[in-house]
Amino acid sequence: MAVTTSSTSAVTSEPALGTPRPMTRVILLSVLTGLLYYGYYKWVIQDELKVHDQKVWSGALCLVPFVLGIAAPLLLAVFDPDVPGWFGRFAFLGVLWIYIVQFRLYREINRLYEAQGWQAPLVSWWIIVPGLNLVVGLRQIHFLSEYWARLSDTPVSDPIAEKLPFLSANA
Length: 171
Hints:
- The chain is mainly α.
- It has one domain.
- The protein is built from seven helices and no strands.
């Protein structure tokens, strides 16, 4: 009978930590890839949060309905002659889905901060106000990166957040 030992089999009560991703890098890579990186970012952070806390939706559950909700009605309206053109208007369901996902994400980040005894950084209802929805989205990127950095004692530089305090202030 063979006996095997593995240091990776140790059970730990510490949840897995995500990777700090500074807003500057997320914006730059998203612009350079035509938002493909942003889709990857959304998928990965949802999966990291799920592993870390188990209370959030996976990246697949967040993005697949969004992509299908946008693409399916538009593609059917364009390429299927039996589908009326107005059917493409149902793409708003994909947009609605991503708003729901984002709202849940903002609440989750606030909950994680509060669980550490820190002040919640995001105002979730800003998502419904044009202009403020972009601000809260950028703040989400910054504060999630900061959360992972603080938990792992890893300093992370973020030039955009440092120059624009309304994106990084948590007072």
